[in-house]
Amino acid sequence: MSVQEILADDHDPARASGAQAVVLSTRIRLARNLAGHPFPGWAKAPQRQEIADRCIAALVDLPRFRRGHVLRMAQEADLDRAVLVERHLVSKELASGQAGAAVISRDQTCSVMVNEEDHLRVQVLRPGWHLRGTWNLAEQLDDALAAALPLAFSERLGYLTACPTNVGTGLRASAMVHLPGLCLAGQMDKVTRALNQDGLAVRGWLGEGTEAAGNIYQVSNQQTLGLAEEDILKHLGFWIKHLVEQEWNARRKLALDEGEKFVDRLARSFGVLRHARLLSSSEAMNMLSQLRLACDLGCLPEALRDQVDRLLIEGQPAHVQVRHGSPLDSDGRDLRRAAVMREALRAFPEVGPPAA
Amino acid sequence: MSQPLQCSLCAEVATVHLSQVVGGKVTKVHLCEACAGKGGAVDPAVFQLADALQAPPAAAELTCPRCGFTDVDFRKRGRLGCPACWETFGGALSPLLLKVQPEVAHVGRAPAGTAPLGQLRHRLAAARATLATAIVAEDYEQAAKSRDEIAALEAALKPA
User: Fold this and answer.
1) How near does any CA of chain A get to the CA of B12, in Å?
2) I want to staple B29 with a disulfide (CB 3.0 to 4.6 A). Which of A91, B50, B106, B129 is the partner?
3) A158 touches chain B (CB under 8 A)
């Protein structure tokens, strides 16, 4: 049970076929706590230990986590923890603490964080747009947990959480969306404002302040109380469909207006990724974004999009170092990253005009 | 609670109490009706001024009997101490909650084995609204469906 096994496993949510254009992945997160225990941030170390032991014991008993991974953050190396963050299996907050743990299913779609902000953070993550399927899985897990552990719940306030922003349903439903069209058209501010006004948060997929990274954003509900789960899901679904439509409109307009210039830009990104000797993380991310767009438009075979999505993960700092086998400084990473890209893109064909 | 709170901008008695949460930090502002009416209520500058004017909080006013968490702790951390804290601080947190959440009432799922009363009531209200609309629109098929749904929900909500 180790991060090495997770890396070696072929069940990579980013790689599994089904990642569609625009929506990279769908995520459901549920915040739950044990009744009668202080929240992780206020608990003393022995209490946190007891909570962790109890939660982990209940989780490993569930069929979903048979042959899964149990990782205690205090026992994992810094780089291994960073790998888990880059794969969206755990949050930065969990990885940076000592009291946390993660129980991850074999196929890496289900990951439960223990002792993050709440005792339990259940996460289901699937490639592409699959809100129903992802929710059903999360619901099953939630029911299984409720049968195994006494959860803190009040009739008036719902599931009791450490932070008022999560109380009630404890539900954060989100999608990772790739929006190069809207970004290039300078529409992101307008889009963000519109979504914010209707109760949805828009963040760069690598956290605050990294909006430019690969034009990939996370869209999620902000409200968790006074709404039923069904309402939250319908609401997100409505906006994501709308966003996908707007993104395609923006892409079509760009291709139409810019014609050859548009394809040239995609081809140049491909050229740099294919041949560069040094690549920074943000450079690689932005060019991979162009490549992904190329796949969506048929400038590259659509089947290659899964590989591009894999590279978006593999190009990140911890992945580069762990694959290399040892820590690297910034220059070392840039060198290694470029080598990874050159190797991966060796078999790619030339970038052509968009499919009709 | 002895002395009435003073307005942060003038020295009058405060009757409007606002809380702002930014990045987990809670700031409280107390205003008299006049100053609140001047539109100062939603001006972020008011919070900055109040910050400067406010003396450091004195003794804690509320303490959770279960875990010892106080309202001073909440102001520092933006998070609660344990599930029982919600009972102690729930009332005081309502205005804060309403800034983020549409309603202070849970209408979603409940743990398996617990009756999701909030959810059932929410569905009952929705079904009644649908029935009313259906009747006005003379959609008797929908009206019949709604009536059945209402009957089932009312039965589920009846105390055992």
Assistant:
1) 32
2) B50
3) yes
Cβ <8 Å between B78 and A163: yes
What is the C-alpha separation between A114 and A121, in angstroms, rounded?
7
Residues B12 and B36 in one domain: yes
Question: Does residue B111 fall inside a structural domain?
Answer: no
Inspect the interface and report whether the beta carbons of A227 and B118 lie closer than 8 Å: no
Whether residue B8 sits in one domain with residue B42: yes
Phi-psi group of A112: left, alpha or beta (phi > 0 → left; psi -120 to 50 → alpha; rest → beta):
beta
Do B50 and B85 fall within a single domain?
no
- Report the length, in residues, of chain B: 160
Please compute the mean of the pLDDT values over residues B45-62 and round it to a whole number: 58
CA–CA dist A125, A113 (Å, integer): 13
| Three-class HEC string of A116-180 | CCCCEEEEEEEECCCHHHHHHHHHHHHHHHHHHCCECEECCCEECCCCCCCCECCEEEEEEEECH
Whether residue B41 is predicted with pLDDT greater than 90 in this model: the reply is no
Query: B92 CB contacts (<8 Å, ≥6 apart)?
Result: B62, B71
Helix, strand, coil tally for chain B in percent (to 5): 50, 10, 40
Provide the sign of the torsion angle of the four alpha carbons A341, A345, A350, A354, taken in this order. Answer: negative
Domain of B81? Answer: 62-104
Q: Is residue B112 part of a domain?
A: no
Amino acid, single-letter form, for residue A166: N
- Are B153 and B138 in a shared domain? yes
Q: pLDDT tens for residues A191-235? A: 999 999 999 999 988 876 556 689 999 999 999 999 999 999 999
Q: Does B47 lie in the same domain as B20? A: yes
Rounded to a whole number of angstroms, the distance from the CA of B10 to the nearest CA of chain A is 31
In-domain check, residue B47 = yes
- Looking at the 3D structure of chain B, how many domains does it have? 3
Same domain, B54 and B1: yes
State pLDDT tens for residues A59-98. 999 999 999 999 999 999 999 999 999 999 999 999 999 9
φ/ψ region of A170 (left if φ > 0, alpha if ψ in -120 to 50, else beta) reads left
Distance CA A288, CA A344 (A): 12
Residue B1 sits in the same domain as residue B52: yes
Percent of chain A scored above 70 by pLDDT?
A: 95
Same domain, B81 and B125: no
Closest residue in A to B64 (Cα) is A38
Q: Which residues of A touch B114 (CB under 8 A)?
A: 153
Complex ipTM value: 0.84
Question: What pTM, to 2 d.p., does this model score?
Answer: 0.82
Whether residue B109 is contained in a domain is answered as no
From the list B73, B79, B104, the residue facing A117 with the nearest CB is B79
- A237, A132 in Cβ contact below 8 A? no
Residue of A nearest to B118 (CA): A155
Pair of tokens at residue A126: 């699937």
The radius of gyration of chain B from alpha carbons, rounded to an integer in Å, stands at 22
Residues of chain A with pLDDT under 70: 1, 9-19, 208-212, 356
